[in-house]
Amino acid sequence: MTTPVPASVEGLLLTADRLLEGELADATTAGRHRGACLALRTALELCVDRALEAAAPGLSRTTGRAKLLLLHSVAPAETARQAKALWSQLSLGCHYHLYELGPTCGQVRVWRAEVVGLVRALSH
User: Fold this and answer.
1) What's the start-to-end Cα distance of the chain, in Å?
2) Residue 67 has pLDDT above 70, yes or no
3) Mean pLDDT lowest for which of 39-43, 49-53, 59-63?
4) Do 38 and 27 contact (CB within 8 A), yes or no?
5) Calpha distance 84→105 (Å, rounded)
6) pLDDT digits (tens, 9 = 90+) for 72-96
7) What are phi and psi of 47, to 5 degrees?
8) Which three-class secondary structure state does DSSP give residue 95?
9) CB count in 10 Å sphere of residue 3
10) What are the distances in angstroms from CA 71 to CA 25, 31, 46, 52, 94?
11) Which residues of 75-86 are buried (b: 16+ CB within 10 A; e: fewer)?
């Protein structure tokens, strides 16, 4: 039995890119976009975890919403606000709603660029 490899921000960004490029032909277009949103949201969550853990060990062991609130104490207010807003958009993009269209490829690409910007901002 193999041990799972921990996810990395870079690996999750690459997975999102592969999904957006259509490399996984078995998935529908909408499914690939939702999958890319999930990979991007997970990358953002890992980055937030790292920022919180660097500021105060143990701080990252709480709920996702609490982490986004705690981010205001370790990052500039605008960065924390952007992270919360982007996390919310990605969360909506991950989930299938019968009465709504899923995210477009263009939307997901914009979100990807925002995740990359937040990863850079939170890494400093």
Assistant:
1) 37
2) yes
3) 59-63
4) no
5) 21
6) 999 999 999 999 999 999 999 998 8
7) -65, -40
8) coil
9) 5
10) 38, 30, 13, 7, 22
11) beeebbebbbeb
